[in-house]
Amino acid sequence: MLRIYLTGEVQVENGNRLLREAKLGGPQGRFVFARLVTERKRAVTQGELAEALWPESLPASWTLALSAIVSRLRSGLATVGLPRTRIIGNAFGCYQFTPPGETWVDVEAALAGVDAAEGALIAGKPQAGYGPSLIATTILRRPFLPGQDGPWVDERRSLLQASLVRALDSRAEALAANNEIVLAVAHAREAVRLEPYRESGYRRLMRMLAANGDRAEAVRAYQQCRELLEKELGVAPSAETESLYRELAG
What is the pLDDT of residue 101? Predict the structure, then answer.
């Protein structure tokens, strides 16, 4: 199976052969590769790819520059046994990444893991989400195309961070169901740090802290939530959050 890693260091693994990020043709090659892999089920026009690659202004000879980037990508991919002439197709002014067989992409595996873990929670089987949530959190904690910016990269990062928060929620529940409460608390705290205005994250953290026997810290988590919402948004916590607080403060 062809394995592609788009988080952390971008890499391509084909059997026992590995293509490292340095062989993708620099940051531009890395970007084009990530974009084509992410959207490999459709053809991406040269103009769309160029505008994403050079969002502020296109070079005068952007078609030649883009062609050179793709050519270097093809050459790099050929070194791990992928067909140079077919791996990135070019027709009717479009490019499309077409792997020769089954392909595993880390980001896709992570998003599938999030869905599976949340499905396990909905089914009332949080421990069934243990493995999928571990895969998802491990992958989604890695940076996506560090050092590069632009609308498409920013959009993907936002999606991946939101997915990481969902993965952390599921992971905390799976850990708690497995009686790994200290780790569950750590994951719940991380989710709150990433999305500090989300009340459900505080409620989960409060429940995990209480399960760990630390009701005082659970009350402090509530107070942190209340103070932030009042100071930054001018609102009070929801009735659900207040009810949980009263239960824990008892």
Answer: 86
